[in-house]
Amino acid sequence: MKNNKRNLVVAEVCAILLCILFLIPLFFVIMNSLKTNGEITGDFFSWLPSGTHFENYIDAWSRMKYPRAFMNTFILTIGSVIGSVVFGSMSAYKLCRTKTLLSRVMFVLCISPLLITFSSVMISLTKVAKWFHLINSVPGLVVIYWGLLLPFTIFLYHGNVKTVPRELEDAAKIDGCGGYRTFVYIVFPMLKPITATVCILNGMKIWNDFLTPLIMIGASTKTHTLILAAERFKGSFASNYALCMAAFVMTSLPIMAFYLIMQKHIVEGIAAGAVKG
Amino acid sequence: MQLALAVFMIGVLFMSKRKRRASVEFLVFVLPSFILIFFSTLVPFLSNIYYSLTEWDGVNTPTFIGLSNFIELFTDDKRLIDSFIFTIKYLIIMVISTNVLGLALALLLNTKIRSRNVLRTAFFLPYGLSGLVAAMMFSFIFTVGFNQLYKITEISFFNQGWLSDPSLAWLSVAFVDLWKNIGYFMIIYIAGLQGISRELTESAKVDGANSVQSFFKVVLPMLMPTITICLFFSMSNALNTFDISYALTGGGPGYTTTGMPQNIYKEAFSNMRYGYASAKSLVYFVVVLIFSLFQLKYTQSKEVEA
After folding, report:
1. Per-residue three-class SS string for chain A
2. How many CB atoms lie within 10 A of CB A14?
3. N or C: which end of chain B has fewer CB within 10 A?
């Protein structure tokens, strides 16, 4: 028993040391965002900056047009998540409950994109987006994201609808509840846990996505997302390290805050998504 | 597809009232999603097949040139070979490293050490960063940071071209990817480990198995479903890699860290050869499909055993 305890202490010390090593890059990025550029080229690894130079943040804030980029990313994420939840849950429910040939064919077609890599559709997707005037616009990209997110969303919902007892629906029907109201008031509330998972998985995917915004809304700074703005920012100010670090920290701050607050749900969501996927 | 829908519509007209209402309801529920998916993936995919047979700059009308894109692709494209070799090397190293180290980390943090919750959060933290921002941060650390570390310590490890030497650059990309994503795999493995009942490991201990034996004979087989999922995730992650190499090395030196998605991206959006890029993307689709089906089959045979 004593031996066991000593092992545990050794494991704990190892784990903590490993963790410090693991997070050191983040630590230095934050430290360096508070230095002047001259200090960085002189000494990247000094622990603390000579004074706190928040002017980097103020400078980066205005130059990367932070508020606009933040709003674009926010609209993109919320819009895509809401749409994918609404359309995904509706169609997965009906596809699961209808046992006709058409329904089965449609289900297979709906989830078949899971086998197609994004790089195999992105070229023509820009053309399709142009036909529908969805390119170079944030709401346009939201609609495209609906289509791109739905296969996985439907897949996740489809597996979960099976667990909703049919008796509930039948009871509602006997009480005179129509098909639409049964879905909204009976079935959808039963799908709450998987809805949380879908929101988290889709939301994180969109917030951190780079390639899709790059080809769809990368042309104008008006439609830039945070990630696109940070990338363009580094392109223009690559030699001003301090300014870049400040931009990176600011770009990551909202999602990090969300992360730490929602951590429990995110971990559960990922684990649940993995089991169903 | 349109034909099938037309037949369905005509069928609806001849149905009884109750049946008709059910069919309309079906369409209201399913059609929006179907249209969205149809135009965002299925139409682009099919038109990709057509474009792959054309010479096209993305602006003017495509001209049909038969299979010459594919002939060029297989016989005369050194950069494609570089990209493909990188993608395969990357796939192998990422699948092995994320799974082995992710599982190791999960085992370490699934013990009863006191700080486990804090440590889990800490290791999971980089996963929230976007790959692009993480790679941009590391691009400074690999250049400015390592430069100064070399001046301080004079260890030659820091004085190598971590981003400019073709034999090292791909490892740097893999390292940043691992750093960002290991927490994700750790989380899934911890969930898997917690699904294994204590009784099994306890009874193995009673039967005299040491911890190594009990890991390989009890824990690992019970973890098989989790492992196959993680293998699948890490595989699709590596095959779709784009952000990290884009921001860290720009795909260079040469094309030695350009993954296939980035190669296709460059061909279409920088070189303006949309037709040729479509051909590439089609070939890559087939390659990925073969990988996926192979994995699926392997998984199924494993699940039958379990």
Report:
1. CHHHHHHHHHHHHHHHHHHHHHHHHHHHHHHHCCCCHHHHHHCCCCCCCCCCCCHHHHHHHHHCCHHHHHHHHHHHHHHHHHHHHHHHHHHHHHHHHCCCHHHHHHHHHHHHHHHCCHHHCHHHHHHHHHHCCCCCCHHHHHHHHHHHHHHHHHHHHHHHHCCCCHHHHHHHHHCCCCHHHHHHHHHHHHCHHHHHHHHHHHHHHHHCCCHHHHHHHCCCHHHCCHHHHHHHHHHHCCCCHHHHHHHHHHHHHHHHHHHHHHHHHHHHHHHHHHHHC
2. 12
3. C
The encoded tokens of residue B37 equal: 């998916």
Reported as a single tens digit per residue, the pLDDT across B1-40 is 556 666 666 666 666 677 777 788 888 899 999 999 999 9
Q: Is A241 in Cβ contact with B108 (below 8 Å)?
A: no
Establish if A87 touches chain B: CB-CB under 8 angstroms.
yes
Quick one: tokens of A59? 């400078």
Whether the upstream peptide bond of residue A113 has omega within 30° of 0, thus cis, is no
- Per-residue burial over A22-52, b if 16 or more Cβ lie within 10 Å, else e, is beebbebbebbbbbbbebbeebbeeeebeee
Q: Which two tokens stand for residue B104?
A: 């190791």
Paired tokens of A204: 């994180």
Burial of B138 (0-12, 13-18, 19+ CB in 10 A): buried
State the pLDDT at residue B305.
47
Cross-chain residue pair B123–A112, CB shorter than 8 Å: no
- Beta carbons of B277 and B267 less than 8 angstroms apart: yes
Contact B144 A245 (CB under 8 A): no
Selecting from A91, A132, A248 the residue whose C-beta is nearest the C-beta of B30 gives A91
Q: Which of A16, A39, A114, A123 to mutate to test the interface with B (most CBs of B within 10 A)?
A: A123
Q: For B89-145, how does the pLDDT look when each residue is reduced to its tens digit (9 = 90+)?
A: 999 999 999 999 999 999 988 888 888 888 888 999 899 888 999 999 998 888 888
Q: What is the CA radius of gyration of chain A?
A: 24
B230 contact residues in A (CB cutoff 8 A)? 274
The amino acid that residue B66 corresponds to is G
Beta bridge partners of B54: B64
Sort B114 into a burial class: Cβ within 10 Å, 0-12 / 13-18 / 19+. exposed
For residues A245 and A33, give the distance between their C-alpha atoms in angstroms, rounded to a whole number: 5
Residue with tokens 């545990």: A8
Using a CB-CB cut-off of 8 Å, the residues of chain B touching A154 are 33
Cα separation, B295 vs B284, in Å, equals: 17
Q: Shortest CB distance from B39 goes to which of A43, A128, A209?
A: A128
- Write out the two tokens for B202: 């306890």
Secondary structure of chain B: what % helix, strand, coil (to 5)? 80, 0, 20
Residue B196 to residue B208: CA distance in whole angstroms: 19
The predicted-structure confidence for B231-254, as pLDDT tens digits, reads as follows: 888 998 999 889 999 999 888 788
